[in-house]
Amino acid sequence: MIDPKTLAARFPGDFLFGVATAAYQIEGSARADGRKQSIWDAFSKMPGRVHNGDSGDVACDHYNRLDEDLDLIKEMGVEAYRFSIAWPRIIPEGVGRINEKGLDFYDRLVDGCKARGIKTFATLYHWDLPLALMGDGGWAARSTAYAFQRYAKVVMARIGDRLDAVATFNEPWCSVWLSHLYGIHAPGERNMRAALAAMHHTNLAHGLAVEAIRHVTPNVPVGLVLNAHSVIAGSDSAGDKAAAERAFDFHNGAFFGPVFKGEYPKSLVSALGDKMPAVEDGDLAVINQKLDWWGLNYYTPMRVLDDARQGAEFPATQPAPFVNPEKTDIGWEIFPSAMTDLVVDLYDRYELPEMYITENGACYNTEVENGEVNDQPRLDYISDHLAAAADLISKGLPVKGYFAWSLMDNFEWAEGYSMRFGLVHVDYETQVRTVKKSGKWYTQLAAQFPKGNHRAG
Ligand code: FCB
């Protein structure tokens, strides 16, 4: 563990420390005040999809505990809150009728943050697509991109004046590949054509939303949150290195390429082009608009080997063994320097604006004992990754802030409630919140800012 003061001295005085959550993972009240179902409500009710049959019906009951949760953020002394907005609360059928009561909730949320001096970083899409849109094909349908643009407009018109930043999407990799190709997340598709359609329509929706946001609220910095993969070849062989490059194109280039360069990776197009949906004239220009910022969500590296089997589908790789045997309770390898290398590599490859680490954190299922949660391994994980973020700043990269995932334990998607990532423990029976050792340490760190450390950035 690194002493908070020593660590703080490595960051500029205006570096932002925050915490992050997402609507479906914490809010609960799945049917309150006109909210309709999302694809995650449906998916979590399908037998065998989510661990233990868990769902976000109640989650952390945040919808009813908004004020006490915002108090908690304030007490933790962090300066910024990254949350997401539930589309099915705002436009319950995805298109058509706007639900004022849904907007009221986020109105109270941003007012509550402002009243407590907490900066607001909103994400418009953290995976809870209105279920009704699946009738048209969900993200496989181009019309969903236009529905998203309208939703973005409606949200910004109502709460945009109190947002410090907005992101269109959280981790398109998950809502595209994990959801439409690997079948792990809602809607649980396993189909390359569907996945490529979701990829292009998500990218298009991002671009259309950027246009809408800039029109309605030109002063709100707009960005995109990507879980860029740190792709590392499992050996120095030419075959494995080429595999890593293909994997980069598939896992990162599919999103970074169109957004930051205005083109899909050539390798992807030549391998899969016949399965791609129509890319219409003008689409790439809409997608490739300069952003004010981007966010990186980083947890673990991706190690790959060549998959030389005949007929292996692009990118034709297989997982390589961990280099560090240490892993968190969800089974992810701990390797902080991969985050540093990844960011350096991305700034080499693309023209990127300034960035935030919008998610980083660790799963440890430590329980409460005598009123305390001694989650030392999480604390170590976070301090080591913050040190890696400080290394990036020393190298001159524009890293402006860090958001710990997560404020509190919550519904961890396909893992249900079995995997805990919070700085704050949640007892799901009683909804009692207990700040963990890592949360207390994070408070000490945040307390060094903005007063304690005014070294120029
Ligand atoms: C990220 C998600 C976030 C959370 C963490 C552990 O992929 O954005 O919602 O589930 O992983």
- CATH architect. name: Alpha-Beta Barrel
Shape: globular
| Cα-to-Cα separation, first versus last residue | 24 Å
CATH class category name: Alpha Beta
Q: What is the mean pLDDT?
A: 97
Provide structural commentary.
With 457 residues, the chain is α/β, with parallel strands linked by helices. The protein has one domain: Glycosidases (TIM Barrel), CATH 3.20.20. The protein is 39% helix and 14% strand. It has 15 helices and 13 strands. The strands form three sheets. Strands 1-2-3-4-5-7-10-11 form an eight-stranded parallel β-barrel, surrounded by four helices. The chain has a three-stranded mixed sheet with strand order 6-8-9, with helices on one face. The protein has a two-stranded antiparallel ribbon with strand order 12-13. A hairpin with a 6-residue loop joins strand 12 (424-426) and strand 13. Helix 8 runs antiparallel to helix 9 (192-216), helix 13 (337-349) runs parallel beside helix 14 and helix 14 (376-394) runs parallel beside helix 15 (437-446). The chain is globular, with a radius of gyration of 21 Å. The model is unreliable at 452-457 (pLDDT under 50). It binds beta-D-fucopyranose (FCB). Beta-D-fucopyranose binds next to loops.
